[in-house]
């Protein structure tokens, strides 16, 4: 990624040296990384919004409203995946590392894969 | 006026349920098949909810939810099922189903569904359906 805004579902206060959240919809905050010319330009956070059953589009709309272009998840359901795609947010996959920084660096370097439709969670799989 | 898809085979037993949904002010689009429901999803941009039978002539309710999501993931979905709550959760996980409905939902089910829509902001409070 040369330019754009990345969101990482995060535990606690988030930040580049923080830890990723396992369930993006129920993370504490989203760490937001702005990338310019292939380098990290700035880091900020967005508070997640509480939602009830069936309200999993709440974080999708939240990040869409903040002009996020990419998110990295460890897993995701079909509805939010489709939602992210439909609001123009690319969804990348990494279910191995808990730390935020190496995942961000790998995304910028082009080393992460976009999640495939058949990698979604649930549905009896 | 926002729209609600009612994807359900002809069944007089859900007439009161349908009337209760219509009383919210939403326009009800009756679709007897999954393909018909998908055509409505393609045609209209202001559908807020799809209420779906357990099984339609051409696909199951959960199959239809998956196809709706691929077109417009913002449409909330409620699906009838004879499965237990636990089994339904397992089968539908990731699809973001708003509510599991009984096979023949009634007025109370419509009220609970509309209340849930208000909680997640798909319709405004004070029984107002047209959201500015």
Can you put this structure into words, describing what you see?
The complex is a heterodimer of chains A (125) and B (132). With 125 residues, chain A is an alpha/beta fold. Chain A has a single domain, classed as 2-Layer Sandwich (Nucleotidyltransferase, domain 5), CATH 3.30.420. Chain A has helices at residues 57-65, 78-86, 100-109, and strands at residues 4-10, 29-36, 39-47, 70-73, 90-93, 113-114. In chain A, strands 3-2-1-4-5-6 form a six-stranded mixed sheet, sandwiched between helices. The longest helix of chain A has 10 residues, at 100-109. The termini of chain A are far apart. In chain A, 38% of the residues are buried. Chain B has helices at residues 15-22, 34-43, 61-71, 85-92, 107-119, and strands at 3-7, 27-31, 47-52, 76-80, 99-101. Chain B has a five-stranded parallel sheet with strand order 2-1-3-4-5, with helices on both faces. In chain B, helix 3 (61-71) links the parallel strand 3 and strand 4. In chain B, helix 2 packs parallel to helix 3. The longest helix of chain B has 13 residues, at 107-119. At the A-B interface, helix 1 and helix 2 of A face helix 3 and helix 4 of B.
């Amino acid at each position: 990624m040369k330019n754009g805004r990345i969101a990482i579902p995060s535990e606690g206060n988030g930040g580049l040296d923080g830890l990723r959240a396992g369930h993006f919809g129920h993370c504490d905050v989203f760490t937001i990384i702005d990338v310019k010319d292939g380098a990290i330009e700035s880091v900020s956070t967005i508070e997640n919004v509480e939602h009830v059953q069936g309200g999993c589009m709440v974080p999708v709309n939240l990040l869409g409203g903040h002009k996020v272009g990419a998110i990295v998840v460890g897993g995701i359901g079909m509805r939010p995946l489709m939602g992210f795609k439909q609001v123009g947010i690319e969804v990348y996959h990494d279910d191995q590392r808990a730390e935020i920084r190496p995942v961000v660096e790998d995304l910028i370097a082009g080393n992460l894969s976009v999640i495939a439709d058949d990698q979604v969670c649930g549905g009896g799989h | 006026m926002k729209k609600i898809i009612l994807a359900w085979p002809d069944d007089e037993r859900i007439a009161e349920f349908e009337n209760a949904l219509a009383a919210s002010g939403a326009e009800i689009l009756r679709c007897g098949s999954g393909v018909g429901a998908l055509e409505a999803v393609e045609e209209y941009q202001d559908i807020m909810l799809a209420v779906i039978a357990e099984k339609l002539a051409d696909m199951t309710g959960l199959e239809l939810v998956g196809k709706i999501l691929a077109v417009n993931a913002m449409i909330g979905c409620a699906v009838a099922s004879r499965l237990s709550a636990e089994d339904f959760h397992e089968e539908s996980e990731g699809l973001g189903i708003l509510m599991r409905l009984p096979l023949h939902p009634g007025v109370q089910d419509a009220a609970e569904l509309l209340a849930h829509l208000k909680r997640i902001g798909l319709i405004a409070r004070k029984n107002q359906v047209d959201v500015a």
